[in-house]
Amino acid sequence: MRAFLKRFYFGLRKIFGVDLLVFLNTCRSLPGFIRDYFQLKQKLAETKDPIPVSINMQMGDKGVNNGELNTHYFQQDLLVAQYIHRANPVKHVDIGSRVDGFVAHVASFREIETLDIRPQDTKIDNIRFVVQDIMAVEEAYKNYCDSVSSLHAFEHFGLGRYGDPINPAGPVVAFSNVYEMLKDNGVFYFSTPIGPYRIEFNAHRVFSIQFLMESLFKDKFTIASFSYIDDRGRLYKNVAIDGENSQDNFGCNFGCGIFTLRKITATTN
Asked: Is the pTM for the entire model greater than 0.70?
């Protein structure tokens, strides 16, 4: 029921622009807003300050936490940026992660090249923007770098949401291309929704741990570390993937798996 209500809430907000929480917070906060407004006007009159006052209602900010920290994006962006800072790769490339989150974190301490099917015209120090479909990556990116990241992006590939071509095998193709991009023993920092395997068109896929290991990682990457965020936004670091927990996706319906993957170098006889 909790998962259904959460999807219903986000559906109303995304599709119809109706945010029930904003409406309820506004109703709750309105009496205090009116009281504070007239109190301000009275005090300004007492001080004879001529500053003009207009209305710009910002409701629902009282009595709440100073930011939402138990989200997939906040937790994963901070964690993986710390990983990259410690690893200090020679060349790091990102694929489709949030520019105003993870990419900005990394750009605060090093250069980062970001590949995305969508253009970006703004020039930002330490960030090189490249328009590139990772499902059809150019030959020049083969054996290109020693470090790649993609956070909360692969689940969208091939669903058309961002203008990409429809391709049910989009994530599989993209994983093969990342493998080719990385130099021997290169590292791939990867996150995605985890839970029962499904497509929620055209928002995203949700991957099961079993699918990830058998269809995406197998013969390409070993798992150097795994952390996850559960359905309530709690982060669990450095968890072993074995036994029943991985079979039931660590109890997640829509959690977030955060993987540090190391490329398996092909051996030649």
From this structure: yes
